[in-house]
Amino acid sequence: MNNFQKLIGLGALVGTMGCEQPLVHTPKKVTGTVLSESGNYMRFKSPMAILVPQIIKKDANYILSVKTDEGIYTFEVYEPFIKNPDIATQRPISALEQVIEIGTRVSFPIENRDKTQYFGNDKIGRLPSSYVEVIK
Length: 136
Hints:
alpha+beta, CATH 2.40.50.140, 6-stranded mixed sheet, 18% helix
């Protein structure tokens, strides 16, 4: 083996060292207790909601305030237009609203895989319903 081959082999060995970190960043999630839930979503759950045109229903909102170790996060929960093909992660707002009440523990991400923050310094933001997980 000549010196050039040894150099290439050493370079390959050094190049593979330190590659144990995942290539995709795992988003940071927080867990907390629901302090309040609000919004006009509940108005669309009445028996009269059948008579309300679908175009009005899409403007329904559901807002949670959650106390975490990092502070209180307040965010609107929305249903994405494109449903996630992974059935296990689909959480319609109607189902979340049914299960979540004051005192419920929930978990949610505060950043995405690109480390882009979902919340500002004031901890106010907006999340798709599939990102809110109820902790039992």
